Amino acid sequence: MPGLATAANGRVGAADPVGWTVLTTRFTSAFGLSHAIALAPMAHAAGGALAAAVARAGGLGLLGGGYGDADWIDAEWARANGAPIGIGFITWALTRDVLDAALARSPRAVMLSFGDPAPFAGAIHAQNIPMICQCQTLDHARAALNAGAQTLVAQGSEAGGHGATRGTLTLVPELADLIADRAPQTLLLAAGGIADGRGLAAVLMLGADGALVGTRLWAASEALVPHGFQDAAVAATGDATLRTKAPDAARLLAWPDPFTIRVMRSGFTDRWHDDPATLRTDPAARAQWQVAQTAGDPVNGSPVAGESVALIHDIRPAAAILGKMTAEALARLGAYACAAGVTHDGQNAGQDVGATP
To answer: Which residue, among 265, 40, 274, 43, has the nearest Cα to 156 in the 3D structure?
Structure first.
């Protein structure tokens, strides 16, 4: 890509967007974006600088509101420096006070994950703010549609962080069919294993309107991720991750079933994956894990990343990541344009790329 300089440590310098193209979908049209990509609101990683960088590059930047730490949200929102960002929350940990404070900032969207959105939907709708609901099953999707979600996210098990067991490849078209049948105006994003333009093009063909990208942007230069974790991800393969309950045990978090967390394998997971209950009773081991997390020690900590680490080969600014993904997706889609009768801008008889037939 033009304007990119790769250093010896695999970190890429500032991006020059010249030569990148716009990919139009229902999602980009609805939100006024130039990239069919949203930042996954990763707790502790998607801070104000990363959300702002994604937003200013033409994607949907979502701050990682996580468990609802009001002080952290205040500080990171300020670091977005006025960029048009949204915010995401872990639904089962969300309180109405934290939501109300977020709504007062007029976010571009509010994303709810891992819990029933219904108790919070009314307040979000009352402010005319788009509600995005992340879903891991058909029942989750039905509940989100019942709550009036404008956008669903089909999250496959390949995703980093918390998730469930369904794979992206089958969950996306199944939710696309559900939406077409019940609420065809609802948008659909895909999440889990999408880290380059090939993945973006693939999920568009499966019926999604765009992608929610976590791990690849976790490896952006603006992310709140220690360099040691990012460098370990660059060197890793997709076989280097697993779903586990050990990091939640280390934090004494009571995550509900069926959710587990995907992290990179480490000495920590080797020791505690099969015995998280004992870890909860070992304060010294939990403290050692926290020190490793803060230091970015990939052997004694748990880098929170998905199977798409195999597709990450450098650490670069978010704008460069979005531009490269879009350019690659357009190239992949263009390779099949003649057979499908699709023009370069993604139009097919007036239909945006990703729109459900």
So the answer is: 40
